[in-house]
């Protein structure tokens, strides 16, 4: 994966709206790319989160409307071929704010999808950008993501399933 903003090595990039973003850090130099914009304020529960992802990335009809299905679709994307994918979640601190468990599950799935596409066979580029209004919100969200995906084996059944 290409370089991250502010020297971050996080799998899911978190930044405030005031951060400078170089497109070359998230998009391939040439080719076709998909930019999916989601609104964290609309992801009040798991069902709404599934809808936002399904709508933004045109998930196929067989999408199962559960965490396993979301994980599978983010690792596949064959119905939406591109040289790069950028998923931008605005209002990221509001994502699934009423359920810490669901929120951590989503963060693990996003991290695993980024890791999956970053593998040696992982073409195209795949980046998730979580946007916060303020720098302090971004710092807190980075800490929460680190706690959600602390490098231990995943207890929620979303093991790394590379092809």
From TrEMBL:
<comment type="similarity">
    <text>Belongs to the barstar family.</text>
</comment>
<feature type="domain" description="Barstar (barnase inhibitor)">
    <location>
        <begin position="35"/>
        <end position="119"/>
    </location>
</feature>
<protein>
    <recommendedName>
        <fullName>Barstar (barnase inhibitor) domain-containing protein</fullName>
    </recommendedName>
</protein>
<dbReference type="InterPro" id="IPR000468">
    <property type="entry name" value="Barstar"/>
</dbReference>
<dbReference type="InterPro" id="IPR035905">
    <property type="entry name" value="Barstar-like_sf"/>
</dbReference>
<dbReference type="Pfam" id="PF01337">
    <property type="entry name" value="Barstar"/>
</dbReference>
């Amino acid at each position: 994966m290409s370089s991250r903003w502010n020297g971050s090595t996080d799998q899911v990039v978190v930044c405030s709206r005031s951060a400078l973003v170089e497109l070359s850090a998230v998009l391939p130099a040439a080719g076709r790319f998909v930019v999916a914009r989601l609104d964290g304020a609309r992801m009040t529960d798991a069902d709404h989160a599934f809808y936002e992802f399904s709508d933004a990335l045109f998930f196929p009809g067989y999408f199962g409307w559960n965490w396993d299905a979301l994980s599978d679709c983010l690792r596949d994307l064959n119905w939406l071929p591109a040289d790069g994918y950028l998923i931008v979640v605005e209002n990221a601190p509001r994502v699934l704010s009423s359920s810490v468990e669901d929120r951590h599950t989503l963060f693990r799935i996003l991290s695993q999808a980024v890791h999956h596409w970053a593998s040696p066979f992982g073409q195209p580029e795949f980046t998730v950008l979580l946007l916060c209004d303020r720098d302090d919100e971004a710092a807190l969200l980075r800490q929460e993501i680190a706690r959600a995906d602390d490098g231990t084996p995943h207890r929620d059944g979303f093991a790394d399933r590379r092809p």
